Automatic annotation (TrEMBL):
Any one of the GO BP annotations: cell adhesion
Domain of life according to the entry: Eukaryota
InterPro entries listed in its UniProt record: CD80_C2-set (IPR013162), Ig-like_dom (IPR007110), Ig-like_dom_sf (IPR036179), Ig-like_fold (IPR013783), Ig_sub (IPR003599), Ig_sub2 (IPR003598), Ig_V-set (IPR013106), Surface_Rcpt/Adhesion_Mol (IPR051116)
The protein's name in its UniProt record: CD166 antigen
Transmembrane segments annotated in the record for this chain: 505-527
Length: 560
């Protein structure tokens, strides 16, 4: 490269400077020399080499002591380049007749150290011009330039908003520059996350270069412009018994730490931190809640609705009633929204609400009235009614001849609660029959049956007893030779007698027809007698023991 038409050598600070002698070696060369020129133009010789004796001599110049080296081709090298080496050096070749000279310009460059932002502000405040920091780049040559950036864009000076001051200081001992650029800045709220950096532009042997600092983000303080109140935890609905927290926040930085909370029913605000806790809230907590800064300059509000659900069951708990009695039942609900009510009996959901105008045994059980608010999670109420239906034992006896005509089945149909104990006896002997079989006790009803094959007419007694009463019913049973049939259970006693009389009459006619071929007269006599006997002992509700004995004597005489 040439500088002002002269050959220039660019060197890096601290490296070795190499300057070739750009002259052709003439014939008859005696020696070569190197010198540099002082600012006033006076020469200072620094190196000498003889062409004949091949010896090298270095002049006593303090700045170049032990730093010079002159080769056989008269190339001069200077170790550990310094800023002071920026001079005009001249190579001289001398013969007896002539002196040839060729100058070389030396330029020295030094890259600055990694720049850094020092004296950074702890925080920035909006609407206030303040020192953000200083960008420092040390030991540069030649001097460079410093540029500030925000979010990758150049910060241009602006009065009372962006003030930049650049200082360049040279170290007299080394000649190196230290550049310090201070930035005063008035931030806005939008600068909260802005990245500030500075770039140093400098020159090197190959041209212009740059080096950048690490970006810095500053904490920007700005006042609160809006207050917000929240209900925590965030859920769609609130029910009685919940714990809730009111949280008040401001959008300033730093955020405010103290607020005033306004509670329904309280005329003055309650001073608190940014939270206000309410535990086990009740329905009277429904209302508008507010919070504000302590100076009451800003305020926000929210409405809280505490949902509730009340259930009243009448009657409830354990209830004991008698069969046939009426029992009005009501399940009333009071709630903050429309509630769903349903009934469960013995773990089975009912289609309709229970209503008891005349209690039956099957009405007994465990009833649950349950209600829910479907829109409010977890809000459910239930109450129970344990209904017991009691009744004195009621007995109905039936009899029939089994299909094999070898035995008869006598059934004692019993109703009552608590479950009656059943005992069978034979009237006259009073003996207890222990071979009875019982059906399952369902809805206050069950049956006890025995199978007998009487050789003669007998009277069976069924005794049913519970805590309320002892009931006794007797039934006359004909000998096995006389068939008998079931009586419909839904008929009255009078109807039962008529049905049984008709049955006996039919049986008599059948027997008479079978014996008519042999002796019509005997068959007729037996038919009349048997029909009378059957009509007398059919009554199923014989309670009078004297009448039973007389009936047995008449039957015995007739048989005889």
């Amino acid at each position: 490269p040439l500088a002002l038409g002269l050959y220039t050598v660019n060197a890096v600070y601290g490296d070795t400077i190499t300057m070739p002698c750009r002259l052709e070696v003439p014939d008859g060369l005696m020696f070569g020399k190197w010198k540099y020129e002082m600012p006033n133009g006076s020469p200072v010789f620094i190196a000498f080499r003889s062409s004949t004796k091949k010896n090298v001599q270095y002049d006593d110049v303090p700045d170049y002591k032990d730093r010079l080296s002159l080769s056989e081709n008269y190339t001069l090298s200077i170790k550990n380049a310094r800023i002071s080496d920026e001079k005009r050096f001249v190579c001289m070749l001398v013969t007896e007749d002539d002196v040839s000279e060729e100058p070389t310009i030396v330029k020295v460059f030094k890259q600055p150290s990694q720049p850094e932002i020092l004296h950074q502000a702890d925080f920035l405040e909006t609407e206030k011009l303040q020192m953000l920091g200083e960008c420092v780049a040390r030991d540069s040559y030649p001097e460079g330039n410093v540029t500030w950036y925000k979010n990758g864009r150049v910060l241009q000076p602006m009065e009372e908003v962006v003030v930049i001051n650049l200082q360049k200081v040279v170290d007299k001992s080394t000649g190196l520059f230290t550049m310090t650029s201070s930035l005063q800045y008035m931030p806005t709220k939008e600068d909260a996350n802005a990245k500030f950096s500075c770039i140093v532009t400098y020159y090197g042997p190959s041209g212009q270069k740059t080096i950048e600092t690490e970006p810095v983000v500053f904490n920007v303080h700005y006042p609160t412009e809006k207050v917000t109140i929240q209900v925590l935890p965030q859920r769609s609905t609130i029910k009685e018994g919940d714990n809730i927290t009111l949280k008040c926040s401001g959008n300033g930085n730093p955020p405010p730490q103290e607020f005033l909370f306004y509670i329904p029913g309280e005329s003055e605000g309650i001073s608190s931190s940014d939270t206000y806790v309410m535990t086990d809230v009740r329905r009277n907590a429904t209302g508008e809640y507010k919070c504000s800064l302590t100076d009451k300059s800003m305020m926000d509000s929210t409405t809280i609705t505490v949902h509730y659900l009340d259930l009243q069951l009448t009657p409830s708990g354990e209830v004991t009633k008698q069969i046939g009695e009426a029992l009005p039942v009501s399940c009333t609900v009071s709630s903050s929204r429309n509630a769903t009510v349903f009934w469960i009996k013995d773990n089975t959901r009912m289609q309709t609400s229970p209503s008891f105008s005349s209690l039956q045994y099957q009405d007994a059980g465990n009833y649950i009235c349950e209600t829910t608010l479907q829109e409010v999670e977890g809000l459910k109420k239930r109450k129970t009614l344990k209904l017991t239906v009691e009744g004195k034992p009621q007995i109905k006896m039936t009899k029939k001849t089994n299909t094999n005509k070898m035995s008869k089945t006598i059934v004692c149909h019993v109703e009552g609660f608590p479950k009656p104990a059943v005992q069978w006896t034979v009237t006259g002997s009073g003996s207890i029959i222990n071979k009875a079989k019982e059906t399952k006790y369902v809805n206050g009803r069950f049956s006890s049956k025995i199978v007998i094959a009487p050789e003669e007419n007998v009277t069976l007694t069924c005794i049913a007893e519970n805590q309320l009463e002892r009931t006794v019913t007797s039934l006359n049973v004909s000998a096995i030779s006389i068939p008998e049939y079931d009586e419909p259970e839904d008929r009255s006693d009078d109807n039962s007698e008529k049905v049984n009389d008709q049955a006996k009459l039919i049986v008599g006619i059948v027997v008479g027809l079978l014996l008519a071929a042999l002796v019509a007269g005997v068959v007729y006599w037996l038919y009349v007698k048997k029909s009378k006997t059957a009509s007398k002992h059919v009554d199923k509700d014989l309670g009078n023991i004297e009448e039973n004995k007389k009936l047995e004597e008449n039957n015995h005489k007739s048989e005889t």
